[in-house]
Structure to design on (828 residues):
């Protein structure tokens, strides 16, 4: 059918509202490319976003979209998917939105194996509200609420998703664009809960406060901080393991629930016969 | 005001008082064409705490759903008996399990029955409630045995039906 | 007619009403005294091809309702005090995105964990103003098992007709009481208006004449954008002050302009009444009994029972106040509905409260006691 990224991006809404040097545009392009590669019908795609810089991503995509409250994108996406399993559902969330305030929904969506693709734009701080620390901020990093260095240990998004039971988990950075597109395409095609943790740059806050003066410097940082050896990664110390952490096939919620619907129909008939109607 | 029959079923959580309240209420409402309201009060413990089920039956519409001045009180624990002994009129039916409760003869229509002993004879202490229901229905006649049997059939799944029916029949015979 | 006569709990009748209304989606988190609704929904929904999902908390449940609603489902949830508090933010989401759905709150005694198994009617104001920002909301309140069934259908109908969340404010007494209920099948069922324009022309927030925009569903031929942020008719963000004012006023007017249709009340013995009781939920049952007792003693008493709490039935209360000597408002809180009654009555006649917050139902005698005191 030959769809291109311009079937999925609303050109009139460009340029992006994000700061100069922000990597979110790279992720949007990778998502649109994945849609085109998979030749998906925009009518059957639903983008769910929460709040934050990355929560504005739905404004640029020519698909259905639901922009919800802070942290709740996955919960809303769960409702969309459960009510209409034919839809391709993506939740686009930042590290604050998806992993910090929405962390509970993240682990439960993984455990439940909802057929949703979560794409985390992980820039280690709350960009929209002025660069405060989040649940993924590396230790000792300076942010606007950790001026003396972050004391808390961050989540490794991929390890968290893996432990919670997601059948597809991968990490790339906005520097590694080819890998990024490949993982996002695989994630969208995968049945079940899939996660792509995208290490992103926030030159405006995180970069500036951590002695990286420009987006270029931050890209350099991503390059030297990344390793394809998954066991060498350590988020707390700014060492980013990139690659596929999990790639398995497992029945998703919808498939398992269809069986429940079948059993329930039979059971109701039996119960009605037994009790003469409830 | 006395257009209604008010029943209290009181004892411990887990004794099945809500179930017999439901059976009684449904018998009156569905099989005798009357109105009935069954309510309940319970604590946070699923088993063992004070539990109470009430049934109000009337041939008219029932406004206030709870018991104001009981006509029938069944108690299956000493705590329940003690709670109601000072609240009943002289002509209120007061039925209790004489195996676990010391009756004080506060009502003219007070009757103790060895309900636990009979349950042990039937080798099932989970059916105290059904024995008590049999006693209550036979003694007070507030609904017919036939209606109760129909209600019981509807409210108890087939695999437990026989044992409950036997207990109910035994209760009928005791009074 | 295939009316089915059953002996059900109020909570069970809510599920029957939802199913009759066409509900196909439930997301919730168990909480006393509402759990029977979740339990029965989990049995019945999959049997009719619907979905029951137990979420990780009430925040997620409410978010899932909005998602399911936008995907075309008639969605509902049930909760009580603490869970209702957690839902507030995403009730706002449903209001702003205009996602039809029904939220049942089987009220229990609070604050916080409170008396977890005991009834109260203290969430009247929370139901009205629990979520932040100026908004309108529809709140219905049942006093019997039959009303649980019928008003539940009405709740879905209002949600669909006005593209809004509807709050179903039950209480532990009504939720757990069992009564005879006729599961009528003659109540009309309303479905949301589907757009008629060409798909590229569709604007998900462009209202019809009634102030309500037609709603497509995700996966239909209409691609659309729904947003919690201030948006214009296209659904895309728009921060222009004039637009914000227009949107907030429309969301308010689409409910308040239809007050006549939304407001449901019942009257007992009010024709010549000089003493008017105003009540709702379980307390309305006590009030009705009190009216009968008063009538037997020759007093001209009557009851106005509110099925719709919000929008508040100003007009009905005003009419009855014109003829009454005084009003009495029994409620299981320290005075919530009474403040609305007093606002409407404007001190023309005295209004007295009968309030109880110990986790027990107000008895008819307590209401009579108050009337004796003031008469």
């Amino acid at each position: 059918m030959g769809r291109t990224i311009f079937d999925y991006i609303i050109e009139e809404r460009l340029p992006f509202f994000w700061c100069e040097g922000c990597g979110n545009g790279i992720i949007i392009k990778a998502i649109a490319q994945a849609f085109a590669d998979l030749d998906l019908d925009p009518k059957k795609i639903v983008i769910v976003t929460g709040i934050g810089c990355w929560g504005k991503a739905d404004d640029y995509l020519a698909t259905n979209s639901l922009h919800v409250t802070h942290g709740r994108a996955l919960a809303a996406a769960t409702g969309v998917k459960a009510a209409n399993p034919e839809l391709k559902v993506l939740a686009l969330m930042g590290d604050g939105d998806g992993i910090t305030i929405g962390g509970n929904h993240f682990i439960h969506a993984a455990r439940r194996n909802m057929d949703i693709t979560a794409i985390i734009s992980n820039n280690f701080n709350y960009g929209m509200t002025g660069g405060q620390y989040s649940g993924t901020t590396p230790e000792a990093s300076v942010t606007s609420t950790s001026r003396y260095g972050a004391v808390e240990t961050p989540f490794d998004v991929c390890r968290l998703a893996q432990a919670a039971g997601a059948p597809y988990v991968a990490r790339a950075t906005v520097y590694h664009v080819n890998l990024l597109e490949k993982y996002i395409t695989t994630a969208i095609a995968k049945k079940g809960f899939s996660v792509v943790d995208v290490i992103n740059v926030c030159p405006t806050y995180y970069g500036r406060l951590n002695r990286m003066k420009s987006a270029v410097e931050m890209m350099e940082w991503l390059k030297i901080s990344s390793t394809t050896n998954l066991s060498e990664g350590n988020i707390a110390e700014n060492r980013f393991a990139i690659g596929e952490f999990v790639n398995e096939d497992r029945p998703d919620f919808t498939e398992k629930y269809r069986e429940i619907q079948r059993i329930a129909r039979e059971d109701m008939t039996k119960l009605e016969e037994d009790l003469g109607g409830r | 005001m006395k257009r209604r029959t008010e029943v209290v079923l009181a004892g411990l959580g887990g004794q099945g008082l809500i179930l017999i309240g439901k059976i009684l209420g449904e018998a009156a409402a569905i099989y005798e064409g009357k109105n009935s309201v069954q309510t309940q009060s319970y604590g946070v413990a699923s088993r063992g705490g004070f539990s109470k089920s009430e049934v109000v039956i009337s041939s008219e519409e029932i406004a206030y759903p709870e018991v104001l001045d009981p006509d029938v009180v069944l108690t299956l624990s000493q705590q329940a008996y003690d709670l109601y002994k000072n609240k009943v009129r002289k002509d209120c039916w007061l039925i209790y399990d004489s195996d676990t409760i010391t009756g004080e003869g506060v009502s003219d229509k007070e009757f103790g029955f060895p309900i636990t002993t009979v349950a042990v004879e039937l080798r099932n202490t989970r059916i105290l409630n059904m024995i008590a229901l049999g006693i209550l229905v036979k003694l007070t006649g507030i609904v017919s045995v036939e209606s109760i049997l129909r209600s019981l059939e509807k409210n108890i799944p087939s695999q437990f039906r026989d044992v409950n029916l036997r207990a109910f029949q035994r209760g009928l015979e005791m009074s | 007619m295939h009316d089915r006569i059953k002996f059900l709990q109020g909570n069970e009748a809510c599920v029957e009403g939802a199913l009759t209304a066409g509900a196909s989606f439930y997301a919730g988190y168990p909480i006393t005294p509402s759990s029977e609704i979740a339990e029965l929904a989990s049995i019945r929904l999959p049997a009719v091809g619907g979905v029951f999902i137990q979420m990780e908390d009430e925040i997620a449940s409410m978010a899932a309702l909005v998602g399911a609603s936008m995907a075309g489902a008639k969605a509902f949830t049930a909760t009580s005090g603490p869970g209702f508090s957690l839902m507030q933010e995403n009730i706002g989401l449903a209001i702003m995105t205009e996602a039809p759905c029904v939220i049942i709150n089987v009220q229990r005694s609070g604050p916080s964990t409170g008396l977890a198994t005991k009834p109260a009617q203290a969430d009247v104001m929370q139901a009205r103003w629990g979520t932040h920002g100026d908004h309108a909301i529809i709140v219905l309140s049942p006093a019997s098992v039959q009303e649980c069934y019928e008003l539940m259908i009405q709740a879905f109908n209002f949600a669909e007709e006005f593209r809004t969340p509807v709050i179903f404010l039950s209480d532990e007494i009504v939720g757990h009481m069992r009564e005879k209920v006729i599961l009528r099948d003659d109540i009309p069922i309303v479905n949301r208006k589907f757009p008629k324009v060409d798909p590229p022309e569709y604007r998900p927030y462009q209202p019809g004449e009634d102030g309500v925009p037609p709603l497509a569903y995700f996966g239909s031929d209409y691609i659309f954008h729904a947003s919690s942020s201030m948006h214009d008719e296209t659904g895309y963000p728009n921060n222009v002050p004039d637009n914000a004012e227009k949107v907030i006023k429309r969301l308010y007017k689409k409910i308040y302009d239809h007050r006549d249709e939304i407001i449901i009340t019942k009257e007992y013995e009010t024709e010549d009444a000089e003493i008017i009781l105003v009540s709702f939920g379980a307390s309305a049952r006590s009030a009705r009994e009190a009216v009968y007792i008063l009538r037997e003693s020759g007093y001209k008493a009557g009851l106005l029972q509110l099925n719709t709490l919000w929008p508040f039935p100003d007009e009905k209360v005003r009419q009855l106040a014109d003829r009454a000597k005084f009003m009495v408002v029994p409620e299981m809180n320290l005075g919530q509905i009474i403040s609305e009654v007093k606002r409407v009555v404007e001190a023309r006649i005295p209004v007295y409260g009968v309030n109880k917050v110990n986790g027990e139902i107000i008895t008819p005698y307590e209401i009579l006691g108050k009337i004796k005191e003031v008469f």
Remarks:
- The CA atoms of residues 30 and 122 of chain B lie 30 Å apart.
- The radius of gyration of chain B is 15 Å.
- Chain B has six helices and six strands.
